[in-house]
Design brief:
101 residues; mainly alpha; 3 helices; 67% helix
Length: 101
């Protein structure tokens, strides 16, 4: 049996569910998208860039879910990150097309 302190239940009887608040979810989504954007910028291959671009798209899709607690501010941030990622990815593709010719 687990050790207990005074007036506490044993660890195996405690409710250990982690509850995320709406602000936690918003922070996680925006931070994840920002990390993917940084990785997209550092990626050396177009396949890797496409993967990170897709990740950003997934964060944006999740933010559109109703009832998920996503704020308008988070949605605007994700749209901006997605816009930047689109330009970065397309610019890289253009430069590669020019280099191939």
């Amino acid at each position: 049996m687990s050790r207990t302190k005074r007036n506490q239940k044993p660890l195996n009887e405690q409710n250990r569910e982690v509850m995320l608040s709406d602000s936690d979810i918003n922070n996680i989504i925006v931070n994840g998208a920002q990390i993917s954007l940084m990785k997209l910028r550092r990626a050396r291959s177009t396949d890797a860039q496409l993967c990170y671009y897709a990740e950003i798209g997934v964060y944006l899709e999740v933010s559109l879910s109703r009832g998920a607690g996503i704020t308008e501010e988070t949605l605007k941030s994700l749209e901006e990150i997605h816009r930047i990622a689109t330009h970065e990815y397309m610019d890289t593709r253009k430069l590669e097309a020019i280099a191939d010719n």
